[in-house]
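user:
I keep going back and forth on a fold encoding question. Separate attempts, laid side by side, tell us more than any discussion would. Would you put together a sequence-and-structure record for a protein of your own picking? Write it directly below this note and I will take it from there.

assistant:
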Amino acid sequence: MILFHIFLIIFTFFFMEFMAWFTHKYIMHGIGWYFHRDHHQPHKGFFEKNDVFFLIFAIPSWLFIQFGMMAGNDWRLFVGIGIALYGLCYFLVHDVFIHRRFNWFDRSDNIYLRAIRKAHKVHHKHLGKEEGECFGMLLVPFKYFREASRSMRSKAAS
């Protein structure tokens, strides 16, 4: 049973990457643009209207965990944990590493992290809701890995 629970957590975590991509592309850059716009345009202050999307993912996680625990730690608990772990990862990668809302880790020579940052910068070069590319967070096109690798090689050669 423990392997099934671990599978549920891992499956849910990776499924959340698809949900984040889908929500970002079709909700945030669609009907939810009112809340997401300030994330793409300069604004004052620490908080953004875009932060409301945290609730879209946090509430289901909380409910899955709560109802799963109330039912004797059934499958819902582990789905909720998977959503919560993805949310933590999203916070650390997107808000801390990419957007530097906190100065916890500013630089990295890791090719994967550099590729993620580059893909996100490409996404943010578009200020309107219709334009855009790279809507995911953890899975980015391979071309950004190649760019990160080239950048690191040229940096090492100089």
Observations:
- Residues 35 and 51 are 8 Å apart (CA to CA).
- Residues 2-31 form the longest helix (30 residues).
- The two ends are 53 Å apart (CA to CA).
- The mean pLDDT is 86.
